[in-house]
Amino acid sequence: MITLGEFENAQKNVASHLIKTAIMSAPALGQRTSVDLFFKAEIFQKTGSFKPRGSLNKLSHLTEEDRAKGVITVSSGNHAQGLAYAARVFGIPATVVMHRDASKLKVAATKAYGAEVILTEGDPFPVCMELQKERDLTFSHPFDDPQVIAGHGTIGLEILAERPNVDVVFVPIGGGGLISGIATAMKLKKPSVKVVGIEPVGASAMWQSLQRQAVVHLDKIETIAAGLCPPFVGELNLALVQEYVDEVVLVSDEELVEALWLILEHSKLLTEPSGAAGFAGLLFNKAKIPSGSEVVCVLSGGNVDRHDLKRLLERS
Asked: For the domain that residue 129 is a member of, what is the CATH number?
């Protein structure tokens, strides 16, 4: 699996290129949920989400020959920006394959970081792998990669360093890279901490995979949480979640929207729906948390454009 030493090495690899994001107290929302509540604000990270952590650690391990050839990935948006940023840091050519329906804001930001963006219809994975072979590039998986997972796990180390008495951490789940990294890193240092993962009802790949004890590929995805809708989770991600995550729960789109607006109203922090998923799990009591517990919800991203924000306002 992944050792504590690998997470600590990842922290050294990424620290000089990232912001050590704040862990912010949320007393009003904590009172509402009967816990001592804090937000880990990855919305203020480089590129607006946690994603550069994994990409920076991944690219730091490449040989000079591989760096010269370049890297390629597939993404709906936040990983695209994270890899593009990391590639710029190391001076590596980057190519990102994205679906044509991807957020225009995220496409533009990925290009601004210097990556070549290729838009495609249908499943972008086959297009990405064909280009990878054709151009002899290094493929950086968005979530199913031990170096990417170790990079994301640095969030867990930061939480424990600042809040050593934390009882529960709520983490959004997309492909599983974030929660597998945070859960593994934290459990290796503090086994007593409870880690709860949150998925949208309409994109429950991890929840279904846990039920079947094998990776499930979704035929249909219906959620406003664009950052939490890969059609499958990674094999390594699933194994780490099985080992280190205490519970995975589901939230509706309506619950995501309510959580987003409460965070904005009370904490003045704007997340995308994916970023609000952790708090939605707490807010709607999806996991039974003892009153007075110290809880950290990871706000994983804040890349929402004005058009999406308008649609979210209409749903509130």
From this structure: 3.40.50.1100
The domain boundary, picked from 127, 143, 159, lies at 143
> Given 121, 143, 165, which residue is the final one in a domain?
143
Q: Read off the pTM.
A: 0.95
Residue 88: domain span: 52-143
Would you call 19 exposed, middle or buried from its count of C-beta atoms within 10 A (0-12, 13-18, 19+)?
Answer: exposed
Domain count of the chain?
Answer: 2
For residues 23 and 172, membership in a common domain is answered with yes
pLDDT digit string (tens) for 43-87? 999 999 999 999 999 999 999 999 999 999 999 789 999 999 999
CA atoms of 102 and 160, how far apart (whole Å): 34
The SS3 assignment for 249 reads strand
Residue 114 burial (10 A CB sphere; 0-12, 13-18, 19+): middle
Summarize pLDDT for 167-216 with one digit per residue, the tens. Answer: 999 999 999 999 999 999 999 999 999 999 999 999 999 999 999 999 99
Say yes or no: 236 and 268 in one domain: yes
Residue 200 is encoded by which pair of tokens? 């949208």
pLDDT in tens, 8-48: 999 999 999 999 999 999 999 999 999 999 999 999 999 99
Q: Do both 109 and 21 map to the same domain?
A: no
Q: Which of 219, 245, 250 is nearest to 232 (CA)?
A: 219
Catalytic position from the list 51, 106, 187, 194? 51
If asked whether residues 129 and 204 sit together in one domain, one would say no
The reply to whether 300 belongs to the active site is yes
Residue 123 has pLDDT above 90, yes or no: no
